[in-house]
Amino acid sequence: MLTYTIRRLLLAIPTLLFISFIIFLIVKLSPSDPTAGLPLTIPPEVREQIRESLGVNQPVFVQYFRWLQLMVWNEPLHLIEGWTGWNVAPESTTRIISYQTRSPVMDLIMQRMPQTLWVVGISYIVGIIIALPIGIISAYRQYSWFDQLGTFISMLGFSVPTFFTGVLFIVIFAVNLGWFPSVYDTTHVVTDWDSFIVQLKQIIMPVMVLGLFNASQISRFMRASMLDNLNQDYVRTARAKGLTEKVVVLVHVLRNSLIPVVTVIALNVPAVFGGAIITEQVFKVNGIGQLLIIAIQSGDVPTVQTVSFIFAVLIVLFNLIADVLYGVLDPRIRYD
């Protein structure tokens, strides 16, 4: 397993390099100007000097390798310095600068990361907690009313896009019923029980929108995996030995059924971040998704490139985690 993990990590390097170049090239070919957001009174020669200082007029390959160096070396040094307080990044080190805010892109991402992790993390956990029991019961009571209802809700939740579900939740629970706020207040700080209730109310709707989408997919995988294992010979053998139905289902069948489901859960983590882009925009959550949307709208090329590359790293990383988990959970699989 260790040899396989090292081999996959080494293979991930050229994969990420290729992905980074494609992302850089596609975003770079888009019509954007770092001086577009500046006042019209700025003379053309000053605008040209700004473009020269940002390296926009250099050849594409020169810009790419410069951005790659900043992304894989300079920015990690600044992150380590910010987290640990160690003086590892020289003061003269160049950083990736946003066209819109004129501040380091990685600092903007780290400012918004807690909000995204708070919403996405809770929604994924809620989705898993909802999906697993529904999938287990639906498979054990196949074609029952519970199975039919679970199938209907799962298909509905997976088919309807999150931006529609978000707007629907706002109309029902915020506008008509007035139970929850329609806008997420990022500046809210939890200091006591009352402020905790306020935080809980404002996070319920974005969490439920993403949680419904996640639960719909995971519950279908859980049901299919359980049905596949319920008909296996070892299940009939366990029942013939006199084991109770609870032990057969929750110990033997569930443990084997979770093997493919765990890999699906790991593979879906990057997709959850992608889904959060739209959900954050609907509920005005000041997270990474909203940062990406604003950067696209304003032509902020460095921010779009950096955030897109971080998503690509998450996809490659969680693909590796899923493969390793599959080998750990299933003793029949040997990578070495």
From TrEMBL:
Keyword annotations of the record: Cell membrane, Membrane, Transmembrane, Transmembrane helix, Transport
Superkingdom: Bacteria
Gene3D superfamilies, A to Z: MetI-like
Pfam families, alphabetized: BPD_transp_1, BPD_transp_1_N
Membrane topology value: Multi-pass membrane protein
Stretches assigned to the ABC transmembrane type-1 domain: 113-322
PROSITE patterns documented for this protein: ABC_TM1
GO biological process: transmembrane transport
Keyword GTP-binding set for record: no
GO cellular component: plasma membrane
Subcellular location(s) per record: Cell membrane
Keyword Cytoplasm in annotation: no
Transmembrane region(s): 9-27, 116-140, 152-176, 196-216, 258-278, 309-329
Annotated signal sequence range: none
Family statement: Belongs to the binding-protein-dependent transport system permease family.
Protein name per the record: ABC transporter permease
Native source organism of the sequence: Rhodophyticola porphyridii
Taxon lineage: Bacteria, Pseudomonadati, Pseudomonadota, Alphaproteobacteria, Rhodobacterales
